[in-house]
Amino acid sequence: MRAIGARALTIRQPWASLIIEGHKDIENRSRPTRHRGLLVIHAGLATEEDALHQYRRLLQRPDDLPHGAILGTVEVVDCIEGARSRWAEPGNWHWVLADPRPFRKPIPVKGALSLWRVKG
Question: Which one of 9, 34, 44, 118 has the largest count of C-beta atoms within 10 Å of its C-beta?
Answer without folding.
Answer: 9
